[in-house]
Design a protein that fits this description.
Blueprint: E1 6-7, E2 10-11, H1 12-28, H2 46-55, H3 57-68, E3 71-75, E4 78-81, H4 84-92, H5 118-129, H6 134-138, H7 141-162, E5 169-170, H8 171-188, H9 200-215, H10 223-238, H11 244-254, H12 263-298, H13 300-312, H14 328-332, H15 335-347, E6 354-358, E7 364-366, E8 369-371, E9 376-380, H16 381-384, H17 416-421, H18 435-452, E10 453-459, E11 479-487, E12 490-491, H19 494-497
Parallel strand pairs: 4-9
Antiparallel strand pairs: 1-2, 3-4, 5-11, 6-9, 7-8, 10-11, 11-12
Helix pairs in contact: 2-3, 7-8, 7-18, 8-12, 10-11, 10-12, 11-12, 12-15, 12-18
The structure holds protoporphyrin IX containing FE.
Length: 510
């Protein structure tokens, strides 16, 4: 055994450890120039992690930035930045993701969200980006047919069956079905995707597994989900028909040699990508639609204005399959609908938490401080969306902030500054690939519902957003009653609009 070296009785190893773990991060690291979330954050992320565990990550980040400004050290190697400069230098510049995203693997293999390095990511993203572009989606006959089936044959009859009684219906479950039916119909093809709005056995089996995942900390396996979508992916690829899955499979096959992929690996990787899109839609579209309906239910005056906007446009949603659905491009241009969707995404971003990136090998300069290589950098929509200089009264739901016209506003979508700070979909090359898909569907569903119904809150217990990456209501439910609109502009008698008894523990779903 080697004798331990000592200086004045203190072991060299101990001195070296103190130098490395205390002196360097606290005094010599360039990050020591940044304000720290807590004095100990220069040495350890423990304070921040514990505070997040007790007070919540989003509230802790918000309070910390309020106190210390746009850039803060959270730990020896982690920095949070909430500023336009941060957005530009971290996200527009396309820094690699941190390995925090590994948990997004499906079937144990990576997909777009968790591909960390830039090169592989952009090769895969290029394959499917076109299939999610606004112009493609607005002219897609396949998506048109799917929209008609889901909205006219699935959603509206489900509401009419289950949502009009005094007990109301849980819209979270309703929108989860809408989301999964839409995205599986789109990525695999309408005849292969799910029909959860009408298939009770299928949806119960599938969502029971998700409920178990929510209620069992540490449980991550999803055998029902994985096998259902693997079967659908294989069916889509072998059907010979055009679909997102078929396109992805074809592209991966062309890279098989280069990426050393066997036929089995190609299929698994392809299915992993598709499940990623499915889960993204299931979680985020549901959260957004739920809070749109929640806010509109609190503000009947907006429901009425929205109905007027829909009636004045070419955007009538048919009651029956044999009537043509409105052109998605027409719905897209409705200013109030757009403002309602955008403001809900601002106040209730479905993914409001930190989006972690890694500083490049050369480091970078941020707010006048050198950020060394391999530092974890992040910003978050929660803080960006609550900057009172950009969004006055930031905690209020005010769709009109996206409408008001003044010298400051260039068009009906807010000021350029508001648009730069709006970050519900992230930004840059890792921003949401499904953004246009999400917005098209959300607008269609909201238009379909409010043309035909007025909504009233029955049970909003636990509507506060959870402090997690996917941030839905903590109760995972919102019960609303749907009151049919009899004719254009004319509502059913006041009696029917009377408040339903609140907090009923309704189990009525679809
Ligand atoms: C309201 C709905 C949605 C919201 C709020 C949302 C939000 C986001 C955000 C914030 C990111 C960036 C994540 C990061 O930087 O780490 C993202 C990425 C992504 N989203 Fe969405 N999303 C929505 C809908 C969808 C839909 C419908 C799809 C289906 C295709 C989708 C697929 C993806 C994928 C694949 C990525 C990763 C992109 C990449 O790394 O290149 N999202 N989304």
């Amino acid at each position: 055994m080697l004798p331990a070296l000592h200086i004045f009785g203190i072991s060299i190893t101990l001195i070296w450890l103190i130098y490395k773990l205390v002196i360097t991060p606290a005094f010599f690291s360039p990050l020591s120039k940044l304000p720290a979330a807590h004095w100990s954050s220069h040495l350890s992320a423990r304070w921040f992690d514990r505070k997040c565990a007790t007070a919540g990550e989003l509230k802790t980040l918000y309070a910390t930035h309020q106190r210390l400004g746009p850039i803060v050290r959270l730990g020896p190697n982690e920095v949070s930045v909430v500023s336009e400069e941060g957005l530009k230098k971290v996200y527009t510049a396309g820094l690699d993701k941190s390995n925090w995203y590994d948990s997004f693997r499906v079937y144990g293999v990576q997909n777009l969200v968790c591909t960390l390095d830039h090169k592989t990511h952009s090769a895969v993203r290029k394959t499917i980006a076109g299939l999610y572009s606004k112009s493609f989606l607005q002219h897609s006959e396949a998506l048109d047919g799917l929209s008609e089936r889901i909205v006219v044959v699935g959603l509206l009859p489900s509401i009419s069956r289950g949502g009009c009684g005094m007990q109301g219906m849980d819209v979270v479950k309703l929108f989860e079905c809408v989301g999964v039916d839409f995205i599986t119909g789109y990525v695999f093809g309408a005849t292969i995707g799910t029909d959860f709005l009408n298939d009770q056995t299928g949806r119960d089996r599938y969502f029971d597994e998700w409920e178990r995942l929510r209620e069992t900390p540490g449980l991550t396996e999803k055998p029902i989900t994985e096998s259902l979508f693997m079967d659908m992916c294989k069916a889509a690829v072998t059907s010979g028909k055009a679909s997102v899955a078929a396109k992805m499979h074809q592209e991966l096959s062309s890279k098989a040699m280069q990426w050393n992929l066997s036929e089995e690996k190609i299929m698994t990787r392809c299915a992993s990508e598709m499940v990623d899109h499915i889960i993204a839609t299931q979680e985020t579209n549901t959260v957004t639609l739920t809070y749109i309906l929640y806010r509109l239910s609190q503000h009947p005056e907006y429901q009425e204005q929205l109905r007027d906007e829909l009636h004045d446009s070419n955007s009538h949603i048919p009651n029956r399959e044999d009537r043509p659905s409105p052109n998605p491009a027409d719905i897209d241009t409705l200013p109030l609908l757009h403002a309602i969707v955008t403001e809900t995404l601002r106040l209730h971003a479905a993914n409001p938490a930190r989006m972690r990136r890694v500083s490049p090998p050369a480091g970078l300069d941020l707010h006048g401080v050198f950020i060394p290589p391999a530092t974890i950098l992040s910003t978050n929509a929660y803080c960006l969306h609550r900057n009172p200089d950009v969004f006055p009264k930031p905690f209020d739901w005010l769709p009109e902030r996206w409408l008001a016209s003044s010298d400051d506003k260039t068009d009906a979508s807010g000021t350029p500054t508001m648009r730069r700070w709006f970050w519900a979909f992230g930004s840059g090359s890792r921003g949401c690939v499904g953004r246009e898909f999400a917005v098209q569907i959300i607008k269609l569903v909201v238009a379909a519902i409010y043309e035909k119904y007025t909504t009233v809150i029955v049970d909003e217990d636990g509507i506060e957003q959870s402090d997690s990456y996917n941030s839905g209501p903590i109760s995972h439910k919102l019960v609303l009653r749907f009151v049919p609109v009899l004719e254009a502009g004319e509502l059913v008698p006041d009696l029917l609009l009377a408040q339903s008894p609140r907090k009923t523990t309704s189990n009525v779903l679809l």
